[in-house]
Every structure is written in structure tokens, then in C-alpha cells.
Amino acid sequence: MSVALDLELKKAFGELQIKMLETSKKIQVIDSQLDVLKQIKRHVEMQAGTLPSDTITYESVGRMFLLTDVEEIKQNLENKINQLCTRTTELEESKNCLETNLKESQDKIREMVQQRKEQS
């Protein structure tokens, strides 16, 4: 009976460890994505803020460039900033959920270890 219980505990413990590792890797990926988005956002904000109103601007469309009004370029940059902020918020929410799952997994592992100690 205790042998079956030990095998069951080992299996559950192994599954929780794998889940924790996967969750940790996902959190690292989200962190790197957030860093990239922050860099892009800073770059776009610098571009939007440094364009004087009398600048001749071109916008790339595929392999060609079209003469475009500065205000339209600034509006496009603002839209891009808003999209980056939205994506950043989504990633942060995902990261919070993953961190919550990771903490729950850690708590379950601690609980299993505590139960094992009490049984011994």
C-alpha cells in the first residue's frame, strides 16, 4: 500500500516539477518580449517627438516610398505606441497569471513534502 502511495507521490511530484519548469520558461520568454517592446516603444517615441512640422517625410509602402504629411506620420507613430502599450499590458497580465500558477505549483510541492514528512 505504501509503495503504491510512494510511486503516486513521486509521479505527482515529477509532474509538478515539469509544470514549474515550463511555467518558468514561459515567464522568461515574456520578460524578454517585454524588454523588446519597451525598446521599440522608446525608439518610436523618440521618432514621434523629434519631427519638426516643416520636415519632408516619406513612408515606406512595400518597396517604394510615398510622400506623406508629417502629421500623418506622427499619427501613425502614436497608433503604433498605443498598440505597443496594449501588447505590453497583455503580456504583463499573462506573466501575472503564470507567476500565480508557479506559486500554486510551489505550494503544492511544499504541501506534498510536508505530507510525506508527516507520514514518515
TrEMBL record:
The keyword Coiled coil applies. Keywords: Chaperone, Coiled coil. This is Prefoldin subunit 1. One of its GO terms (cellular component) is cytoplasm. One of its GO terms (molecular function) is unfolded protein binding. Heterohexamer of two PFD-alpha type and four PFD-beta type subunits. It holds the Pfam family Prefoldin_2. It comes from Leptosia nina. Belongs to the prefoldin subunit beta family. Residues 67-115 form a coiled coil. It comes from the Eukaryota.
